[in-house]
Every structure is written in C-alpha cells, then in structure tokens.
Amino acid sequence: MFGLGPEEVGILALSLRVALVSVLVSLPIAIVVAYVLARFSFPGKVLFDAIVHLPLVLPPVVVGFALLILLGKRGPIGSLLDEWFGIVFAFRWTGAALASAIMGFPLMVRAIRLSIAGVDPRLEVAARTLGASRAWVFASITLPLALPGIITGTLLSFARGLGEFGATITFVSNIPGETQTLPLAIYTFTQVPGGDGGALRLSVIAVVLSIVALVTSEWLTRRVARTLGP
Amino acid sequence: MIDVDIEQRLGTFALAVRFSADAPIVGLFGRSGAGKSSVVNAIAGITRPARGVVRVNGQVLFDSAQRIDLAPERRRVGYVFQDALLFPHLDVESNLLYGLRRRGADERFIDPAKVIDLLGLAGLLRRRPNALSGGERQRVAIGRALLAQPRLLLLDEPLASLDATRKTEILDYIERLRDGLHIPMVYVSHSVPEITRLADTVVVLSDGQCLAAGDADVVMGRLDLKPATGRFEAGSLVDTRVAAHDPDAQLTTLAFDGGELRVPQLDAAIGERVRARIRARDVSLAVRRPEAISILNVLPGRVVAVEEEAGPIVDVRVAIGAALLTARITRHSLRELRVHAGQDVYALVKAVSFDRRSVGYA
C-alpha cells in the first residue's frame, strides 16, 4: 500500500486506531466539560479549569508516570478495574489511547468551550419557550451551533494523539504491534545504527497525516460555517 | 384572562406588579426600564419572581405559596422577542415547525397552513434567517411562537428594530392574527401609537409598579399618567365607525358619539369600527366657531377640566358628546381666551394630523 511495507502499515493502522479511539471516547466528556465551563459559574471553577488544562502544561512524562502509578496493574485504580471489569490499560494499546485522550483533552475542551460560549444563550431561552426541554435544547440548538468548535477540537485532539510520545512511552512502554505508535517507531529507528532511512519514511508519513488532518479540519469548519451563516 | 401579581428584586430595581386583564390584546406600556420585560419574562417562566402568582385562563403557571413554578417549556406561553432570535442553523420552515414538533396531536389547535398564509410566509420557507429582512424575521418569529400552540402570546417590543414602513406592516399582520386566530396577546411597548392602535386593555408600568390598568381609551387619556405616558405623546382615543368615503377628496368620514371626524382616506368598509388617536398637541381650541379656515374638523364641546401645571403649556379636557379630547395649548392662550371648566368651546383637529399609525381597526 503506497509502497509501504507490512510493518509500516501495521504501525500506521495502530496509530490511527489509538488516535481515533481516544478522540471518540473523550469527545462526549469534553463536550459536557466545555458546556459546564462555558455556561455555569460555581465555586471551585478556577481549580476545575486548571485541572482540565493541566496536561497542556505538564511534561508528558509526568502524565505518563501518573497514569502508570494510578492505572498500572498494581495501581489503586488499575487493580480495581482489572478485578471488577477485567479492563487493563498497562502495556496495552488501550493504555496508549487513554494517554492520547488525556493529552489531547485540554485542546478539545478549549475549542468546544469557545464555540459554546459564542452561542447566544437567548436562543436557548427562545427554544424553551417553544416547548423544548433543556436536554433537547442542548441537542437541537447548542450542539449544532457549536459544531465548528467541536470539529476543530476533535481534529486538534486527533492530531495531538497521533503525535503523542512522552506519556505513551512512559505509561505503556514501546511494544511493537501493541503500543508502538508512529512517533515511538520513529524514535526506535533513530536509536539503532542505520535506522535513519526507516525513520525518514515514517516521518514523511507523519507529515502527510498531519497535513491531511489540518486540511480536513479547515474544510469541515468552512462547510459548517457556510450552512450556519454569518 | 391573565392574572399577574408578582414581586421581584433585580439588583437595585424592585418590581411589584399586580393586574388582571381580559382582552384580545393587553398592552403593557411604560418607558424603558419600567419593568415591562421583567413582567413578561416572569409570565414566560424565564425568570422566577420572589413571590406571587401568574395565571393564564385560570391555569396556575406560578404560585410561590403553593410552590408551583412550571418550566418555560410546560407553560405554553409563546414569546416573540425584540430581535426575533431565529435559529440560524435552521431554515424558515424548520424554525416555524420547531415548537410544533414538541406538541402532541391533542395539543394542536393552530394550523400551520393558516399561520403561514396569515403571515405571508409561503415564499420564505426554504430561506435561512440570515437571508431575511428585519420585517420578515419578525414575521417568522411570530409564526414560530404561534405554531408552538400557545395559550397566550407575549410580544416584547416586536417592532423596536424595524423602520416605520415595516412597523406598519407588522402591525397589520398582528391585527390579522388577532382576528383570525383568537389567541390572547400581551403586547409590550413604549410607543403610544402602537399601544393605542392594538391594545384593548392597557397596563401602565413605571419604576416597577403598576400605575393603571383598564380600557385603552380611558387609561391612555388620563392626564395624571402623563409622567409615564410622556407629555409629547399625550392624547386621546376615539372609537368611531366608518360613515362615508369621499373618493374625490380622498377623505373618509368617521362617525362617533359626539360628531364626525374627517381623515385621509382609509382602506376600511362602511360601518367598520376604527379607533382614532388624536394627539393633544394636534388639537386647538376656539371660543367661537371659526369661519374660512382650512381645518376640517371643528367639533363643538364643553371644557371638563383644565390641567394646571407649572410651565408654559396646559392640557384642557373637552367633552365632545361621550368622547373626551385633550387639547394642548399655551398658558398664554388659556388666559387670553379665558378658558375654564364648563365653558362651551370648539375643538379644532386638522385632518392631516391623522396618519396611518394613528388610525387602527378596532
């Protein structure tokens, strides 16, 4: 496929899967958090906001380490999840997806929150006087009008997930076929003599993926903006 | 029937309003900041009063003593906002049907086809709100509120952002709805011409208090409400019937208990009820019948009261049959002519002082 070897296709597929799952799982949570931050004020809001943004400013290794401590096989949360639900994150691709989701979360929330804040709350009031419940107003008015921000946030987080390195390698290590995503594979190539060629090929793939993601985001946002009108 | 008795504190502004009104259109009148919007927001359930009762046609929407506070979506009170607030991501048709789709079959009594016809919306259905003019937007907003099948329609300064031509157009549409659908309406405005043209019952608000409530012609003519209704706009309402048309002169004669008024030609059938608003500053007084004068309406009457107040201007109340006119004249003229209560006078009203907005179909 496109002159890629089976190993390279495997790495690409794993990376896409990790980024996609991380985005799909975090999107509903991000929308709720963004809505709460955009529309409500409550005690502790500043602290809540800071915690949401923490992965943006922390060294990724610290996030990975925290995940390892909490969600590792013997971690306080990890052991419970394993015991009750049989869910294991440590050294699995799901762990890589979780690390990506957490690292991309602040980007996603920021974009969606801005978009929701831009929706005139009086439109929501108008919808309620027309007989719509709070939940339906959210689904039929707020969400569609915030769609540009939701698209931007999703793609930013997706791109961030494709590039995730520090938290992933710390939390789930660098296991070929399980947790070795694109950046980890590139790093591996650079660590062995004569690996430059392989690193270069994967880097080109990474550049192409990033450009596709950004162009898609821009195109979708424009399309939606056109249907929403000025 | 609307019963409102609410108390609410909004910052430093205290609202304490109590009125009952039963009319096709209730006018909620007052200057900006008088508390008009607060009252309609409380009726719609957008804000919650600290204390009180809101009832529409006997149904309790809010009662602080009984701890009843229906959510806005359960009140079935339509709300037309000053700036339309159409949903920008939906076309006109989806906007119109937004509320209708939330109503069960047994709650539907206003037919979409009829509303679309009455408001002239058929040609707009596929358009987006951003492709509509201000007047069209407001018509869609009115239609959208009506199709949510309300028991009461609130209109909060629906003409505020429109130019004069559009205002007249929307007023015509509102009258057509009142006659075609029989939905009680509360019409909020600070404009005397709008209130007097539409409202049957008027509630006057000032500083969060209800100053007066009652029949439009009585309330709007009261001199003691001048601080709230505004000196410039003071005037009187006369209920008339179309008596004759003079196509040559393009004049219409309106008959009322006390005489006749000739006004620029109206598009109304003989016998139709028409309400004429006569501004106090458009009425002059003469103690003898004037001759060779361009003023068409010379109405014999008797002075009922003279509103003495500091300043160069006085208002004189003149009874013309059963109708009451207010004449605004200078204190100088009052002294020169020795105008006093009980005196027989002639009230002079220029036909050209009537415009389309001061004559409405009642």
Quick tags:
heterodimer, A: 230 residues, mainly alpha, MetI-like fold, 11 helices, 0% strand, globular, B: 362 residues, alpha+beta, Rossmann fold, OB fold (Dihydrolipoamide Acetyltransferase, E2P), six-stranded mixed β-sheet, 10 helices, 21 strands
Overall residue-averaged pLDDT value of chain B: 87
Proper CATH architecture of chain A: Orthogonal Bundle
Q: Secondary-structure element sequence of chain A? A: HHHHHHHHHHH
How many separate structural domains of chain A? 1
Rg value of chain A = 20 Å
Low-confidence stretches of chain B: none
Helix percentage of chain A = over 70%
Helix content of chain B: 10-25%
Provide the CATH topology of the largest domain in chain B: Rossmann fold
For the largest interface in this structure, which chains are involved and how many residues does each contribute? A-B, 21 and 28 residues
What's the end-to-end separation of chain B, in Å?
Answer: 19 Å
Query: What's the story with the biggest beta sheet of chain A?
Result: none
Helices and strands of chain B: which structural class?
Answer: alpha+beta
The CATH superfamily of chain A bears the name: MetI-like
The SS-based structural class of chain A is: mainly alpha
Number of DSSP E strands of chain A: 0
Morphology call of chain B: globular
In total, how many domains does the architecture of chain B comprise? Answer: 2
